[in-house]
Amino acid sequence: MTAWLDSAALILLIGLAAWVVLGRNTFAAVAGFIAYGMLLGLVWVELQGIDVAMTEAAIGGGLTGALMIGAARRLKSAAPVAPATAGTLVIAIGVGAAMAAILAACVLALPNPAPSLASLVAGNIAATGVQNPITAVLLAFRSMDTLLEAVVLLLALIAVWSLAPDAEWPGRIGVPQTANPNGILAYIARVLPPIGLVIGFYIFWAGADQPGGKFQAATILAAMWLLIISAGLGKTPPVSSRWLRAGLIAGPIGFILVGAYGVASTGAFLGLPAAYAKPLIVTIEIALLPTLTLILALLIPPPLRKRAEA
Amino acid sequence: MTGATLHGLAAAILIGLGVFGLIAHASPLRKILAFNIVGSGVFLLAGALARRGAEAGFGGDPVLHAILITGIVVAFSATAMATAMLLRLRSVTDRTTLAETPPRHDADPPA
User: Fold this and answer.
1) What is the ipTM of this complex?
2) For a tag on chain B, would you pick the N or C end, based on fewer CB atoms within 10 A?
3) Residue A305: its pLDDT value, please?
């Protein structure tokens, strides 16, 4: 029964990917991409990666989808691009098929038994005080990756801000939106955020011992904030705002301070003394949550000025 | 054939499809979409490897899963940056292609 469900989901997934790649209409391709992200989340559940499934559905499908819809809407009036020549198509088919064939051959030739670090994690997880192995890896065993990831996100936001036109700098990124205060968007933007806040903070807190964590929680909180902004009930903060900038660096700074404490207490950067491992991990997560929420929301292109269409 | 192998083969097809789209499409937005399909295929391939490494009571190798979560977030930030560059290119040059010669504006719009 499961094998069957697996195959059906995978066939549907490949069909959706083909739709995204081959479809003529950009907007339809973007819609297909969102469905693809959601289905990919289900496939991750089948692969026993619940944490990855939540991240894929929230960020890979939802947030990237929102980003692409915004971009497709802005580019709708752009001049059409010349279609690919027959030569390009032949090269594309050849390279794509060769790549798929080589990878498939590699998959079939994988060694048995598969190498795995799962036993090492299981043997040492007790020292971290958390029970979710993913959280233990992200914030204890390989915390340097997570620190650098937070820095990469910050650099991406700085790069996106650097592309703002001179005339808009340093103002609010994006224009305030207006929506019908009695419309369905404004209604949802009033009703949903309290529920979203509770769910977001629950996923954040549960992440120590169960699937969940700061990335998934930050995405939900960012989505609630974007909903409020797009309904015109709130504004994006000016980029010069002090609280905004403090929130953006809180995560990396908090992480580095905990790392420095590790040098003093255990002799290694980001080392966690076993007695305080759990409180330190929670400290890092609390510092990262506002940073991740702000960055994920601000990376979405700001809404357009409302034209005659509405 | 185990479930993990099946997922690995599907990932190979997704990567192939994405690479095709990356080369075949002239529109940068479609290239970004195709590149995201390649990325998700690579993640799925790693997911199949993680599933094969299931032991010690875990359903998959948690180290790979954690790296995948990091990867998904970083892929999103790269996508956001590519999109911002594309939108800026449009607002500065009114073009949405990286081709050497500007597209003809008198060309017929697609049906």
Assistant:
1) 0.86
2) C
3) 53
